[in-house]
Each structure stands twice: as structure tokens, then as C-alpha cells.
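R.M. (postdoc): so does anyone remember the format we settled on? I'll just put the C-alpha cells first.
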């Protein structure tokens, strides 16, 4: 019985793999071989992280918009923390951290006549975390880790939206 199920699973995997189907996100999401430029007034760490993610999707990151098929213009990347709960003494006991990226997609110098673009979109991520007033360094470290995770999640959302337009 178990051998029959295993044979069925292998046969199904071969049929699905042979037709070219793949899980969403398993491929490059339309970025394979696409020359992409990154624009906007963003810091180098953010730009480098976006370029790294694009290269991970097999895009070709170029410096000049004239060499690109599309230009991802980062209009704003920001984060904000707010208190969502307080203790009996009025001190914060839980914070919420929000991260957002506002961006646009425009055609580069190597774009075809039907290249899709959009003027401005925003992706947002958020998460809550407990605050320990007695451990400020631990709280700051946790906040920084969470901020990095939220930035990466927001970048993934951005790349998903751009990838659908390629």
C-alpha cells in the first residue's frame, strides 16, 4: 500500500514537473534576465538589499536607467513605532512597528512599447512586540531585528507587485 502511494507521488511529481509548472515564487517572478535599475533617494544599505534580492530572482541590476528595461523608483522608505499597550503604571508594555515603502515603476531605455508602468504604490508591513522597561538594550535589539524583517517582507511585496508587471 505504501509503495503504491509512493509510486503515485513520484508519478505525479514527474507529470507536474514535465509540464513546466512550478510553485508561485519558485521561479524568478518574471525577473529572469530583465535589466533593472534602482532609482530614488534611498540609502545604500536599502539599495544594496534591493539589488541583492533582484539578483536572487535572476534579474540583471544595472546602474543607468538607459540600460534598463524597467526602473524601480523608491520614493520613500520609512518605519514608525507606536505604543499599543501600557501597564498599570502607564509605561509601554507593547509596541507596534510599521514599515512602508512607496515606489513607482517606470520604463527604462531598453523597454518595449508595451512595458507596463505605474506611478506610485505603497506596501506596508507591521508587527507588535512586547516591551520590557527593565531591558532597554534588549528591546532596542529586538526592535532592530524586527525592523529588518519588516523591511525584507516589504521588499518581497514590492518585488511581487513589480514582477507581475514584467
Amino acid at each position: 500500500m505504501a509503495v503504491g502511494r509512493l509510486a503515485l507521488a513520484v508519478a505525479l511529481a514527474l507529470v507536474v514537473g514535465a509540464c513546466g509548472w512550478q510553485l508561485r515564487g519558485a521561479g524568478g517572478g518574471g525577473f529572469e534576465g530583465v535589466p533593472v535599475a534602482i532609482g530614488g533617494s534611498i540609502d545604500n544599505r536599502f539599495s544594496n538589499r534591493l539589488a541583492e534580492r533582484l539578483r536572487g530572482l535572476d534579474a540583471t541590476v544595472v546602474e543607468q536607467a538607459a540600460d534598463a528595461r524597467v526602473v524601480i523608483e523608491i520614493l520613500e522608505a520609512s518605519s514608525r513605532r507606536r505604543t499599543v499597550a501600557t501597564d498599570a503604571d502607564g509605561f509601554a508594555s507593547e509596541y507596534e512597528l510599521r514599515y512602508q515603502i512607496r515606489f513607482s515603476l517606470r520604463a527604462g531605455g531598453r523597454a518595449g512599447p508595451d512595458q507596463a508602468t505605474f506611478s506610485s504604490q505603497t506596501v506596508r508591513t507591521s508587527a507588535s512586540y512586547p516591551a520590557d522597561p527593565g531591558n532597554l538594550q534588549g528591546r532596542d535589539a529586538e526592535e532592530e531585528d524586527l525592523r529588518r524583517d519588516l523591511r525584507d517582507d516589504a521588499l518581497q511585496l514590492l518585488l511581487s507587485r513589480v514582477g507581475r508587471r514584467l
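R.M.: ...and that's the designed sequence above, right after the C-alpha cells. Also worth knowing: DSSP finds three helices and five strands in the chain. The longest helix spans residues 136-165.
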